[in-house]
Amino acid sequence: MSLLLSQRPSDQAELENFGVDWVVHYQFDDVEISKATSEYEALIHDLHEAHLETQVRHGHGASVLIFIRVPRAYLGNLVHQSRVKDWLYGIIHELPVGDNDTIADAETPAEALRSVYHAVTWKKSLGGAHITPKHGKWKNIASAFPLHDQAANAELLRKWSKTILLMAEDLDAIRALFGEKVAFYFAFIQSYSLFLVFPAAWGMLCWYYSRSYSITFAVGNCLWAMVFVEYWKIRETDLSLRWQVNGVGALKVTRTQYVWEKEVRDKITGEVTQIFSPYRQFLRQLLLVPFTSIASLALGGLIVVTFALEVFISEVYTGSLKGYLEFLPTILFSLCLPSITNLLTRIATRLTKYENYRTQDQYDLAQTAKQFVMHFITAFLPTILTAFVYVPFGARIVPYLNIAYLRGKATDVPRDFHVDPSRLQQEVIYLSLTGQVLSFGEEVVLPYVKRIAMEKWRDYRSKQAVVEHRRNVSQATNQVLVDEVEESAFLSRVRSEAEAVEYNVHEDTLEMCVQFGYLTLFGVSWPLVALGFLVNNWLELRGDFFKLSVECQRPPPIRADSIGPSLQGLEVLSWLGTLSTAAIVYLYRDGMTEIHLSSFLLTILLAEWAYLGMRYAVSTGLAKILSSTLRRESAKRYAVRKGYLEASVSSGPGGSPPRGKLRVRFRDKVTVYTSATDPPSPQSEEELHEATLDDSERRFWSGNAVEDGLRMIKALGTSAADSTGKMRKEL
Amino acid sequence: MSLLLSQRPSDQAELENFGVDWVVHYQFDDVEISKATSEYEALIHDLHEAHLETQVRHGHGASVLIFIRVPRAYLGNLVHQSRVKDWLYGIIHELPVGDNDTIADAETPAEALRSVYHAVTWKKSLGGAHITPKHGKWKNIASAFPLHDQAANAELLRKWSKTILLMAEDLDAIRALFGEKVAFYFAFIQSYSLFLVFPAAWGMLCWYYSRSYSITFAVGNCLWAMVFVEYWKIRETDLSLRWQVNGVGALKVTRTQYVWEKEVRDKITGEVTQIFSPYRQFLRQLLLVPFTSIASLALGGLIVVTFALEVFISEVYTGSLKGYLEFLPTILFSLCLPSITNLLTRIATRLTKYENYRTQDQYDLAQTAKQFVMHFITAFLPTILTAFVYVPFGARIVPYLNIAYLRGKATDVPRDFHVDPSRLQQEVIYLSLTGQVLSFGEEVVLPYVKRIAMEKWRDYRSKQAVVEHRRNVSQATNQVLVDEVEESAFLSRVRSEAEAVEYNVHEDTLEMCVQFGYLTLFGVSWPLVALGFLVNNWLELRGDFFKLSVECQRPPPIRADSIGPSLQGLEVLSWLGTLSTAAIVYLYRDGMTEIHLSSFLLTILLAEWAYLGMRYAVSTGLAKILSSTLRRESAKRYAVRKGYLEASVSSGPGGSPPRGKLRVRFRDKVTVYTSATDPPSPQSEEELHEATLDDSERRFWSGNAVEDGLRMIKALGTSAADSTGKMRKEL
């Protein structure tokens, strides 16, 4: 029983969360009260059936918040079972000591929360409550999420604002708070930013000492991109082994939406597996080809038209309102882009659903791959058009725009129209600097302002609503609709978290990939691009963490062993980057004079061969030099087996496991990185159960979720119906 | 004790080998007798110290054959220890049942022989006798090798001569006889030949229905090459898992020649490892670049000169003896090639030694990589010159040859010299068909004839020598120099095996790679190439097995999990093949008319992009469709762990291992593939020891190796000295 130390002792951070492990946000705006009550009862029933304790408070508007708490002993056992499963699937090498009833101590908050997540979402056959927000039976559940650990978040943000570099321990801390999937993103942006120091310094040197479009810088930049991608591949394996998540994709559970053709009992394991023909799936995946074509055509067409209009207005058009009209194409483009992107995203989502992936991981990856294509087109096509069409061929193309327009009329534009080759550089400078600042504002600042404003407005509304309620409902109901004084701060925080958006780590990763792509594709035209990106990323990293911890719901601590398909994106970009750099240097170096198609093609071909050759050398060399990780991993396996062998020869299986190296606790505000060393003194289970809850918490958990909830639904549902009714009348 | 069933019961094949496990061939032609005797004594001492039984007979000339036999119980324990080591290094998933004294039954002859090999060659600290033929202390040991299993070899050869395809069981049989490294080569040639059916059929179709240099055939051929390489990668993993050798490189022992910088005690495992900086090794490996350049220049120069001379003589020269002179360049080339190749091989070997690899495996791979480069140049450069230099530019270049020669004289050759574009096709036909037949003769038939002739001559010589011995030496010595009647057939076989060459599996693999390369690079110029190769390979496979089993020493059954660096060679060839095919089709399709450099480059660039794109699609698709192997592997691990978990929960560790699926025994002549099913009845160790040796075998093992050997050395050494003395006198 000495292992029964829960992850949530009575420290400051815990107190603020009132021992709540998970929150389910049930909304019933558009639901009839009778249906809402029955759904609510079923929800509570399912949760209780899965051994979860529940409590309920009202949310904003017609919604209730169901607070879930997993009994400590049960949670400890879930953690142990999860580790045994890891061992069965070969994720970890040593079998956790214990039997079916062992209660294990989670190493990190994320590990504990992951077990909670499984208890809430897994199918009933797997022992979960099968709560699937926004899907099927539970489509009225808006979200289900864990609560932020405010103290730890604040501590990390404070620490990072003072440092330049993130250390391994910082990444471990993110992993401990948010799980490996999120930690991989931060590890990526950290490695990437660190690597950016080279092209930034190299760029400054070349900018100062050599001519523009310098071959020296081009070669350095391309090599850097290649080395970074190969390094990251090794680093990723390194991290996945350090965090013991290598190959974790294998044990992910089946998505509820998965359609299988047959169930097969595996001859070797005896487990029942659901099979969907990989051949059919591959055929379905081939639909990616027409999708990519359509997306390219739609987005590319839009971009080309905008571009042509812009050129036309700025270079050819001489009519009235020219000053205003110049902005028109960009404005139109900005207006059309969201709806086209939305449409494409919807198609992409349907496609991904049709591709029918077994696990959520695979689903996410396939969806991200499609978004990558779309991002790629919108981000790079304008600059590609400038670099390889407008500047080289502008002098030939632009007069046609003129002629097409002024058919028959006298030509206003002189025939020897000349495009300024520095336009590419201007565009790169604008997009790489201004663009980054704007996107940061759009991503972090704007949502923050919006959220604050929204909250103010809602506060105002809800105060009015409370007054109305008072008049309408009984005393007992009234009590459940008014927050206790000691809970009110906590509840208002939970309500705002319930309204917050979900954090999408793939989006952030993609953003970094696009930045990387911009540097490799067009960096050669202005060597200071990397410097700008380096500065931006210092802020970006902290901004992303701020967004994650303040503006988004805490994501379920999902495990992953890679940044996903973005890695392939990086490889493609470093390859395209070499071709593009060679092409730009060839075209622009001598100011667009003496260009021959055959020598242009030869340049590209040679650049490509150099790329292929160098990549092979770099990956072989790096793998050789950085092979220590894999060696350490096999040494560890060797040690475990050796120890087991010795133990089994002398007596039986045993030996206490040397786990806990990476143990990270957020025990108090001062030492975020404390690693727990003192084992807790043995206590009886009851004592422990009590010890984890203080007075206010016990009070919080004392109500009856079923009764309270039903009362709330009736009260809030009626008032919501009233107010909609009123509004209808008023209209 | 029930596991004590040795791999060598009293069956036919065993009888013929007199229970001999290993043979050491000690030669002392150039050694003083006193030194020879002390070396011999040390050898026998070392062998006895390593718990090996020895027996001695004289060999051809001044040499003795030391027969080694590992006591059955000791061998069984070695096999068990080896399996435990496999488990420790993660090669197999389940710990073999037993303790330090367990005696295991080898699954295959190769497994038993591998343990014998280790006992003979491993360092004394590892429990071996540290016999290292041709190296250091043992540089007078010409070879150390196991004896062929004549019956099994003959049976396999007989079976294969009647079938078209090799089955999985045939590959398992090769593995059981010769180990995984050799089996991988046969698996490769089998898969490759099977795959050849497609381009053979496709080629016939295209040859019949479409024009020459058809794009249809070109695309099919390139796609086929790509699919084959990607398929083989998966197949290789499949086989390595089936044969339980995946990742086997990790447990290979350190080479005697390895130089390390420091010894480090691993923190995790506690094992001492010898470390040589991987960074320094990488730097040394970079010497491959100048080596490749030098090799290319030397071989390339030779080829270019030969080519130019040939062209000059056949096309320009009109002087006397033209008919004979035409063959001169080729003859000169053939005369120079071996010495240049030898020189380059020597440089390559020194380079590989300098690169200082820890294991023999890594050493072999590095050496093979260098040979690959040399093979590549000699095999492909002549045809590349024909295809891309002589035919397209011949009309421009050849007149220069003429002018250079006839400086100032009148020009005999008309200026509008024209090269026949069909020359490429003729060359491809000649090289792919005649070349294959000639190389088969050179590789299999010629050595066979040579060996037979050599044996006849030696028989004649040794008969004379025996007569001489009789006169010179004592009666006791005389007895050891004359074979017993019942042993004489066996001994003459062993003597001829001792003189046989070592089998180099890399050479055979390289030969297949060169064939593959020829098909991908130039196959498009004559679609029937693949058909020819297909027919050739049917013979090649059997010829190689004949060579392996009759003309070579039985190789030590070394394990490997791949065909090695040839795999990378195949990848490079399929890439180069695409480029070459595109170029040939572009150049030759319209009979060398309308060629533009820019469209030529564009063709190559597009072909390369198509290749890169398709390869990604093919490898992704194949990995998806053929993923069953890896799934099965993880299922197996899961099952093992699950079983262990259940066992450990209920009692302790245990459960009998379900090994032996692949067990292959060569028990008698009729059923080569019998899998042993009846467990042997328990017997006492002594009985078993006796049971494994019959009368003649017991007699064979009854002599005293030390005394007999010393007597032989003295006798043979003296007579050798006598005869050299005589010869010197005679001269």
Helix/strand-derived class of chain A?
A: mainly alpha
Annotation field: number of helices of chain A: 24
Largest interface in this structure: A-B, 47 and 47 residues
The Cα radius of gyration of chain A reads: 30 Å
Tell me what portion of residues of chain A adopts beta-strand conformation: under 5%
Taken in chain order, the helices and strands of chain A follow as HEHEEHHEHHHHEEHHHHHHHHHHHHHHHH
Global shape of chain A: globular
**Biggest β-sheet: strands ordered side by side in the sheet of chain A:** 2-3-1-4
Overall mean pLDDT of chain A stands at 79
- In terms of quaternary structure, the protein is homodimer
The total tally of domains of chain A equals 2
The count of β-strands of chain A is 6
Major sheet of chain A: size, sense and barrel closure?
A: 4 strands, antiparallel
Pick out the low-confidence regions of chain A. 1-14, 652-691
Keywords (chains A, B): Membrane, Transmembrane, Transmembrane helix
Domain Anoctamin transmembrane (chains A, B): 174-636
Protein name (chains A, B): Calcium-activated chloride channel-domain-containing protein
Membrane topology (chains A, B): Multi-pass membrane protein
